[in-house]
């Protein structure tokens, strides 16, 4: 369909959110900047967001990708909440969910099983991250 | 060989010697070097430090000819370039202070006792995010974070439990805490009193460096003005009651971890120092009465020589600032003492054992740079908070440096190295350039408002990420020498999932069993005291803590008057 | 409230290129005030997709009830905080608010970091507030169309106020606020050349002037300067509306009620003075001609039209055709501007 083809060239929109109480925003800022420099539109909502706020924002902003960063150790609590809320709003198929931060392999595997599409650690080079986000977003648009 | 110049300063290298060296150098470049370069060019077109300072191929006495002897000097004497004390590690090895904190106060108390048994000589407490940010364990915003990245402390009994069986008059306790530092200090004082300790013998530190929170680490509650007042109150309280306690630990570490270069770390830390000293002096306190208790916290990053030079330059600039700008008279007010931590950002997830080596080299630089206390990172910190094993290994790294290498025998052993002295001077000049720029903007607080620091740091962080990402900045095991099948398996610290529940239940018990009227009255008195911006909030806070008011309640009691800070992030 | 007019929705003619069923879902969703439907439709229109245009065709007749406020000012004037405070005030009065926050895109990559929501987080969980961040996307002519289309959707979705917040720097941003019914221009003390910026083009579009951050020491000076400028220029514009000058402190919350009152007063005045009809006509002229221009340039650039264009050009080069006639032929062949590209395939 014409529109699906066109959608691939539409700017990718990404919500970059810090959930939890930690203020380590070095990573999200680098990510936001790398995505912007790759032509994407990045919505940044600041520190200490709750899962409810993240999901409401993702829906209003109609983002392709939700990027969640947290280094507070609460990933096994907060990611499931976000997934649950996306389901409740019937939005889990519309947004790709990507996590970042200090997340042990074991937890990363569990989160992926729950529905987090990708976990990108702090060693991920900006160029790799940008490509992965683009891939995930395009795949998601074709699915939707 | 030395001559006295017109300015009265002593020239280490005379003009004639300098000329001779320059001649030699020119001849060497013409002959040996050129022939060599024709055969094989150097690996890079230009060489620079991690902060971007240009470095030469080789250094000679000519490079230090314009550094007067008075700038280098002797340890324990102004300008303290070579160290704050005349005997340094010959008198006392640095304090081996591994930070620890997780789960409930009981859990962390157990780790403390383990570390002391392994030969650790100081304690350092890591609090969980809710405690750092002023939320109780039972706050909805704390879910999932209670006891995760540090220990959860809500009420006085937590502080009592945390140090149960540990002699607080003999071991120094450093507490990494910022916007809620004044509450933690109140709890520490109340707990020590309860144990019958002599407050005058308590030694330790609260980090309490709120300015770098706005600049870098982003742990804040109130806007800068009331926050600075809280810092001032702890400083004046300690000056009077806890003479051996450092109420503020001015920190470059987090500025660096947020992305700053080492030059920026040193410069911005000295900029915040200046703002604190100005604030307290403005309150009418004599600079020599509190400056001796100021202490510092720097990172030790990967560029070996630059880090050593950074510590030396920071000591020199600080000494001059205290003497010339603030008119300090006591030498103790001019000597910069610092705690040091190796750089967590340099640790990698792939091939985690490589992290032991990185940390070891960084720790050596910290020691050669004259650190007073040191934390070495665990090899597993790119995964989780360190396991007991990782902490032991990190501590052993320090013990090996202290006891096997003999680097502790001679003070500032690299002092006089042409390269190191020249680099120290380059860093010093860089620091002064930044300080001048900050002055131009209207001072540290104004520069924070203008997001100046934040923008500088964000730019450096982005450049660092791009360099690492492109492979231009080598990271062994990540962008070089990558193992397809990484066989370095490690056991990471497991969080006890029940500990959050236990902590919340215990807090609820305390909250229901205490004298509610006493809590209400103490919180009201606290809020009333806060209305007078010249009043010291410490006594009223200690009373509230003794009445079993929780940290979250104390924070909220002051919020209507103080307001809440909201940042404008810059990219 | 949208309940009544909703019955007017007619099933529209089938449009190839987007499934009618999905389109109706989108329209129904917007009318049902489903944030996801509203958001998706805005995306479609932002990207100038046919499914978006089709939905807008259905929704457009239902609009015209929201009061559209354009709010603009220099970077750093505290617009986002002001908008958040205004929204808080309007919510207290029981009204619903939609906010479109427009930020410039990077001229290098075309990407953008949109951070206005940080100041608006207090409204994140309020169903009565909808916030959408938009990038100027290089402002290649489509910005004002996309923004005003988005405002139409939010109007149809039943929001009482639609506030469009832009940085008052470029022509495109000024064009957007021109499409609003009430234009609020925000100044701030201490930016120095602020007044100059106003002189350069914002002054004439303002219906309300706000000096924000009035707690700053040099606020009085800015107020005085503005007052003088307004007096010189005629403190009431030619239509008889007396332009208010309000000082606010979005942080302290002062002046916000006054701003909300003046916005409402202006809305009433627009209706009663007949100015509203005049403005709507002017806005319609601007929109229709802008969209028409867009369509023509899209057509000229589209591969399908390219062949015809090239052959016309060759004729002009060969002097078998003059440029005027060639251009006329192009326009005539594209005269049916309501047809979409898809239809013509």
What shape does the CA trace of chain C take? Answer: globular
Q: What would CATH call the homologous superfamily of the largest domain in chain C?
A: P-loop containing nucleotide triphosphate hydrolases
Which homologous superfamily in CATH is the superfamily of the largest domain in chain B?
Answer: Methylmalonyl-CoA mutase
Q: How many distinct beta strands of chain B?
A: 12
Oligomer: heterotrimer
**Cα gyration radius of chain C (Å):** 22 Å
Based on CA inertia axes, which overall geometry of chain B fits? globular
Which class of secondary structure composition applies to the elements of chain B?
Answer: alpha/beta
What is the top-level CATH class of the largest domain in chain C?
Answer: Alpha Beta
Structure annotation, total helices of chain B? 21
Separation of the first and last Cα atoms of chain B? 53 Å
What is the helix fraction of residues of chain B, given as a range?
40-55%
Order of helices and strands of chain C: HHHEHEEEHEHEHEHEHHHHH
In DSSP terms (H or I, runs of 4 or more residues), the helix count of chain C works out at 13
Named CATH topology of the largest domain in chain B: TIM Barrel
Secondary structural class of chain C: alpha/beta
The CATH topology of the largest domain in chain C is what?
A: Rossmann fold
Largest sheet of chain B: 5 strands, parallel
Number of strands of chain C: 8
Main attributes of the structure:
heterotrimer; A: 144 residues; alpha/beta; Rossmann fold; 5-stranded parallel sheet; 16% strand; globular; B: alpha/beta; TIM Barrel; 2 domains
Q: How do the strands and helices of this protein lay out in sequence?
A:
The complex is a heterotrimer of chains A (144), B (571) and C (345).
Chain A: H1 2-7, E1 13-18, H2 26-37, E2 41-44, H3 51-61, E3 65-69, H4 75-88, E4 96-100, H5 105-114, E5 118-120, H6 126-143
Parallel strand pairs in A: 1-2, 1-3, 3-4, 4-5
Chain B: E1 3-4, E2 10-11, H1 15-39, H2 69-72, E3 95-96, E4 99-100, H3 105-117, E5 123-126, H4 129-133, H5 156-162, E6 173-176, H6 181-194, E7 204-206, H7 211-217, H8 224-241, E8 245-246, E9 249-251, H9 253-257, H10 262-282, H11 287-290, E10 295-300, H12 304-325, E11 338-342, H13 354-368, E12 373-375, H14 388-404, H15 418-441, H16 444-449, H17 452-470, H18 498-513, H19 516-531, H20 538-546, H21 551-562
Parallel strand pairs in B: 3-12, 4-5, 5-6, 6-7, 7-8, 9-10, 10-11, 11-12
Antiparallel strand pairs in B: 1-2
Helix pairs in contact in B: 3-5, 5-6, 6-20, 10-12, 10-15, 12-13, 12-15, 13-14, 19-20, 19-21
Chain C: H1 20-31, H2 35-46, H3 50-59, E1 67-73, H4 79-92, E2 97-103, E3 112-114, E4 129-135, H5 143-156, E5 161-167, H6 171-178, E6 182-187, H7 194-202, E7 208-211, H8 219-233, E8 245-247, H9 256-273, H10 275-301, H11 303-317, H12 323-333, H13 341-344
Parallel strand pairs in C: 1-5, 1-6, 2-4, 2-5, 6-7, 7-8
Helix pairs in contact in C: 1-2, 1-3, 2-3, 2-5, 4-9, 5-6
């Amino acid at each position: 369909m014409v529109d699906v083809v066109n959608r691939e060239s539409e700017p990718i929109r990404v919500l970059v959110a810090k959930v939890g109480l930690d203020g380590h925003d070095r990573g999200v800022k680098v990510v936001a900047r790398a995505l912007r420099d790759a032509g994407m539109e990045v919505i940044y909502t600041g520190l200490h967001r709750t899962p409810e706020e993240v999901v409401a924002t993702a829906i209003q902003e109609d983002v392709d990708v939700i990027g969640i960063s947290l280094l507070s150790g609460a990933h096994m609590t907060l990611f499931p909440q976000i997934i649950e809320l996306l389901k409740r709003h019937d939005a889990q198929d519309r947004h790709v969910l990507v996590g970042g931060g200090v997340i042990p392999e074991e937890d990363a595997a569990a989160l992926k099983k729950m529905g987090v599409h990708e976990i990108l650690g702090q060693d991920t080079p900006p160029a790799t991250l940008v490509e992965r986000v683009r891939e995930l977003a395009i795949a998601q648009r074709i699915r939707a | 060989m030395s001559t006295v110049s017109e300015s009265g300063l002593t020239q280490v290298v005379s003009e004639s010697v300098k000329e001779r060296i320059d001649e030699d150098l020119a001849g060497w470049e013409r002959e040996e070097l050129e022939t060599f370069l024709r055969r094989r060019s150097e690996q890079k077109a230009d060489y620079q430090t991690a902060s971007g300072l240009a470095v030469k191929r080789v250094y000679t006495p000519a490079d230090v000819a314009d550094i007067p002897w008075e700038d280098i000097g002797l340890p324990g004497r102004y300008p303290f370039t070579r160290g704050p004390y005349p005997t340094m590690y010959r008198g006392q090895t640095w304090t081996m202070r591994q930070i620890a904190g997780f789960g409930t106060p009981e859990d962390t108390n157990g780790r403390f006792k383990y570390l002391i048994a392994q030969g650790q000589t100081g304690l350092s407490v890591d609090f969980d995010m809710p405690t750092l940010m002023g939320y109780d364990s039972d706050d909805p915003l704390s879910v999932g974070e209670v006891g995760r990245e540090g220990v959860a402390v809500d009420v006085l009994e937590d502080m009592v439990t945390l140090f149960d069986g540990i002699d607080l008059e003999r071991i120094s306790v450093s507490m990494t805490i910022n916007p809620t530092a004044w509450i933690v200090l109140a709890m520490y004082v109340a707990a020590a009193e309860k144990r019958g300790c002599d407050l005058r013998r308590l030694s330790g530190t609260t980090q309490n460096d709120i300015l770098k929170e706005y600049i870098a680490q982003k742990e804040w509650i109130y806007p800068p003005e009331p926050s600075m007042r809280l810092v001032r109150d702890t400083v004046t309280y300690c000056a009077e009651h806890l003479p051996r306690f450092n109420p503020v630990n001015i920190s470059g570490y987090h500025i660096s971890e947020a992305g700053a270069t080492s030059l920026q770390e040193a410069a911005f830390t000295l900029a915040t120092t200046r703002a604190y000293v100005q604030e307290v002096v403005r309150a009418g306190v004599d600079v020599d009465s509190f400056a001796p208790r100021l202490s510092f916290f720097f990172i030790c990053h990967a560029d070996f020589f630059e880090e050593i030079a950074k510590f030396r330059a920071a000591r020199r600039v600080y000494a001059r600032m205290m003497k010339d700008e603030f008119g300090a008279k006591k030498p103790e007010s001019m000597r910069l003492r610092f705690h040091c931590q190796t750089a967590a950002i340099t640790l990698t997830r792939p091939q985690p054992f490589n992290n032991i080596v990185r940390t070891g080299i960084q720790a050596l630089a910290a020691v050669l740079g004259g650190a007073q206390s040191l934390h070495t990172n665990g090899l597993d910190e790119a995964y989780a908070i360190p396991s007991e094993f990782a902490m032991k290994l990190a501590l052993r790294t320090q013990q090996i440096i202290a006891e096997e290498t003999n680097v502790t025998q001679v003070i500032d052993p690299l002092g006089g190295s042409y390269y190191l002295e020249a680099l120290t001077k380059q860093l010093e000049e860089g620091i002064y350039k930044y300080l001048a720029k900050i002055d131009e903007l209207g001072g540290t607080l104004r520069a924070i408002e203008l997001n100046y620091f934040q923008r500088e740091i964000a730019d450096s962080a982005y450049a660092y990420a791009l360099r690492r990402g492109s492979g231009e900045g080598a990271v062994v095991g990540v962008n070089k020498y990558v193992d397809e099948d990484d066989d370095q398996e490690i056991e990471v610290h497991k969080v006890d999932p029940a500990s959050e529940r236990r902590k919340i239940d215990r807090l609820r018990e305390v909250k229901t069993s205490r004298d509610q009227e006493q809590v209400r009255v103490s919180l009201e008195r606290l809020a009333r005291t806060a209305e007078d911006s010249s009043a010291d909030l410490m006594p009223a806070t200690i009373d509230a803590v003794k009445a079993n008011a929780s940290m979250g309640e104390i924070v909220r009691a002051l919020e209507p008057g103080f307001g809440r800070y909201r940042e404008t992030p810059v990219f | 409230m949208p309940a009544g007019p909703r019955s007017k929705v007619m099933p529209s003619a089938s449009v190839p290129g987007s499934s009618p069923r999905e389109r109706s879902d989108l329209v129904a969703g917007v009318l049902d005030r489903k944030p996801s439907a509203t958001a998706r439709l805005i995306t479609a229109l932002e990207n100038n997709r046919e499914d978006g245009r089709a939905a807008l065709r259905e929704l457009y007749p239902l609009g015209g009830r929201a009061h559209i406020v354009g709010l603009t000012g220099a970077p750093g004037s505290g617009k986002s905080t002001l908008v958040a405070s205004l929204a808080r005030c309007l919510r207290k009065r029981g009204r619903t608010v939609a906010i479109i926050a427009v930020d410039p895109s990077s001229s290098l990559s075309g990407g953008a970091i949109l951070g206005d929501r940080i100041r608006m987080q207090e409204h994140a969980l309020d169903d009565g507030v909808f916030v959408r961040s938009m990038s100027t996307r290089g402002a290649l002519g489509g910005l004002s169309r996309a923004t005003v289309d988005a405002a139409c959707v939010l109007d149809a979705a039943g929001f009482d106020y639609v506030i469009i917040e832009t940085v008052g720097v470029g022509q495109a941003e000024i064009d957007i606020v021109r499409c609003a019914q009430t234009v609020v221009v925000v100044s701030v003390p201490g930016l120095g050349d602020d007044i100059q910026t106003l002189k350069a083009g914002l002054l004439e579009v303002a219906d309300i002037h706000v000096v924000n951050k009035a707690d700053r020491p040099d606020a009085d000076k800015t107020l005085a300067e503005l007052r003088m400028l307004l007096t010189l220029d005629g403190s009431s514009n030619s239509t008889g509306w007396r332009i208010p000058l309000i000082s606010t402190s979005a942080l302290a919350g002062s002046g916000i009620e006054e701003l909300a009152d003046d916005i409402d007063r202006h809305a009433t005045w627009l209706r009663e003075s007949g100015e509203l009809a005049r403005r709507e006509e002017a806005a319609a002229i601007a929109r229709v001609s802008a969209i028409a221009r867009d369509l023509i340039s899209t057509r000229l650039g589209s591969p399908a039209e390219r062949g015809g264009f090239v052959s016309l050009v060759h004729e002009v080069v060969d002097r078998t055709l003059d440029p005027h006639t060639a251009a006329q032929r192009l326009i005539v062949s594209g005269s049916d501007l309501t047809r979409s590209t898809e239809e013509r395939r």
